[in-house]
Design goal:
This protein has one domain. The chain contains 2 helices and 4 strands, in the order ααββββ. It has a 4-stranded antiparallel β-sheet with strand order 1-2-3-4, covered by helices on one side. Strand 2 and strand 3 form a beta hairpin. The longest helix is centred in the first third of the chain and has 24 residues. The chain is elongated, with a radius of gyration of 17 Å.
Length: 114
Amino acid sequence: MLFAMVLAAGSGCAAPVSCPSPQEVIAAFNAFEGDLEWDLQADASRGSDDVVSVAVHRTRRVTALRCTPAEAEQATVTCRGVIHRMSSRSRQNFRLVLTADGWRLEDHLNRTRP
């Protein structure tokens, strides 16, 4: 029982202030998914007179969240957790960056690799 309490108390971060809460992770995923939904809908309706509707399943909760600060970059954390959506869940690794608007997913989709 004591072992379970120690595990539950551990945040996975050296300084819990520098780590996002589960609610902040959900907000970061939902902001990313909202932008993705907007872009997909704009792309799908471009060049077409048809009405196009795109829906992205939003993140409802996150469990088993563990974050560690990235040593090379300030205000960046590397996290892993189970992301729960409407009818699915998936274990994911992701990086979050602290901005003036709160935590945001690292913009890895626009990166080009050499």
